[in-house]
UniProtKB/TrEMBL annotation:
Biological process annotations from GO: carbohydrate transport
A Pfam family of this chain: OprB
Family that this chain belongs to: Belongs to the OprB family.
Organism domain of life: Bacteria
Provenance organism: Hymenobacter ginkgonis
Gene Ontology CC annotations of this record: membrane
Protein name stated in the entry: Carbohydrate porin
Compositional bias (Low complexity): 27-46
Region named Disordered: 27-51
């Protein structure tokens, strides 16, 4: 693992040196990989002139995270418990973003990606896992795969236009200020929904899973976070409506997507309202979702195990066309040009097994970020946040009876909310198109278990991010 880290770090340093040959400029601001979908805090400025349309876009990112936790003294462990002692874990992702304009209003985007490494305890034992760049895949060696390949078509609904900068999966040029858009292909559903200027991207912002996305949204994706489907958008200044139909994995946390849409699919809808308070932009989003797949029932699994010596097994209680419903309320507000605050509340019914994201049925997160302008580091970022995660009654009863999901399973459960605090500082190196970010997280009741550990888990990490 040490050799792997040195090699990965060498690649990152090589990329840093190569970046010096590029034109000097700041690292791309933290955002989704579809910048045109950014919320109000990133899109409130009105362009003063129109730019020339470019036909190609080419960008690159690489993120390396090294993460460690303190030694623990658990009273008992299960199949998916956070390990009491383990070596530091390394993760690596490298992505190429290629865009090509096809005809008026249309472009195709292609993102090959390499990912490797492992999360702490294989990304198990904590509902809000501490590294959003890790996947629950057994083989830590780097793998090459297709992250995104999709077509985006815009139709203007008025004569007004705005400028788009050249960015990740975004072509430089003009676009309608009011438009209808259709996105079809393979992408991450989080590229379009649950956006937040301050808490959305583990490559540049908070590391924790329940801060990069709404914890209670079991968002449709394969094990690497991507899905296939369509997203329809209606966007005008101050208001955006989005709806999607996308595929679910064939198995919980599985790598293969199920294209039998009559049996398995995810429907998602969101409304975004942007506004300004004393010239400080903000946004409120309301998201609703319904997922359908061959999920197992927690209640049925517990009933099937009654009178036996075996622990309940939710995979043995699966049936076609089971559903999961939920919603997310997501808000952000700029307080000053250098400070912003945010919050999310998310909920799902929790009757059936977690299928795609993580074992969180309801979650509340609050936080704030600041630039380093006050200490003469205007492109640095400081962030601090708090999260409380919880489980449904059915879900906690299943774990208490000894059941396991793909994230959790201590063999028993004395239930309590999982509390997480995180603070990070991103040191920006604009000349090299890079940032170095130390991070600290403290986790109480990991896996919602109040009796498994005598104290909190302390997680420290260091992230190297290169983007141009």
């Amino acid at each position: 693992m040490k050799l792997y880290f040195l090699r990965a770090l060498g690649v990152a340093l090589g990329t840093l040196l190569a970046g010096r040959a590029l034109a000097q400029g700041q690292v791309t601001p933290p955002a989704s990989v579809t910048p045109s979908q950014q919320p109000a805090a990133a899109s409130a400025q009105e362009p003063t002139h129109h730019t020339h349309d470019e036909n190609w876009s080419l960008h690159f990112q690489q993120t390396i995270i090294q993460q460690w936790h303190n030694d623990l003294s658990p009273r008992y462990t299960g199949d998916h418990s956070l390990q009491a002692r383990e070596n530091a874990k390394l993760s690596l992702t490298t992505t190429l973003f290629i865009g090509r304009r096809l005809w008026k209003g249309a472009a195709v985007y292609f993102n090959p990606e390499v990912a490797g490494g492992s999360g702490l305890s294989g990304a198990t034992g904590i509902g809000g896992a501490p590294n959003g760049e890790t996947f629950r895949i057994g083989d830590p060696s780097p793998q090459v795969y297709l992250a995104r390949l999709y077509l985006r078509q815009l139709w203007a609904l008025g004569p007004a236009e705005e400028d788009d900068a050249d960015d990740l999966n975004q072509l430089k040029g003009t676009r309608p200020a009011r438009y209808l858009a259709l996105n079809v292909g393979k992408f991450s559903i989080a590229d379009y929904f649950d956006q937040n200027s301050y808490s959305h991207d583990p490559r540049t912002q908070f590391f924790n899973w329940s801060l990069m996305s709404a914890g209670g949204w079991d968002y449709p994706a394969n094990v690497r976070g991507y899905t296939v489907g369509a997203v329809l958008e209606y966007v005008q200044p101050g208001l955006a409506l989005r709806a999607s139909a996308t595929s679910m994995p064939t198995d919980a946390n599985g790598p293969t997507l199920d294209f039998h849409y009559d049996k398995a699919q995810a429907l998602t809808a969101e409304i975004t309202k942007s506004y300004n308070i004393n010239n400080h932009p903000g946004a409120v989003r309301l998201l609703g979702f319904r997922n359908q797949a061959a999920m197992g029932s927690y209640n049925l699994a517990v009933r099937q195990a009654l009178g036996t010596a075996a622990a309940p097994d939710v995979t043995a209680a699966r049936a076609e066309r089971r559903t999961k419903y939920g919603f997310v309320v997501n808000a952000e507000q700029e307080v000053s040009p250098s400070v912003g605050v945010f919050g999310r509340f998310s909920y799902n019914d929790g009757h059936n097994e977690t299928w795609a994201f993580t074992e969180i049925d309801h979650s509340l997160s609050l936080g704030a970020t600041s630039t380093g302008a006050r200490w003469k580091r205007p492109t640095d970022r400081l962030g601090a946040a708090f999260v409380a995660n919880g489980l449904s009654q059915d879900h906690r009863a299943y774990l208490a009876a000894g059941g396991s999901g793909f994230i959790l399973g201590d063999g028993r459960l004395d239930y309590g909310l999982e509390y997480i605090g995180e603070i990070y500082y991103s040191i920006d190196f604009p000349r090299y198109h890079a940032a170095l970010s130390p991070d600290y997280q403290i986790i109480f009741n990991p896996g919602y278990n109040t009796s498994r550990l005598p104290g909190p888990v302390h997680v420290v990490a260091l992230r190297v991010h290169v983007e141009f």
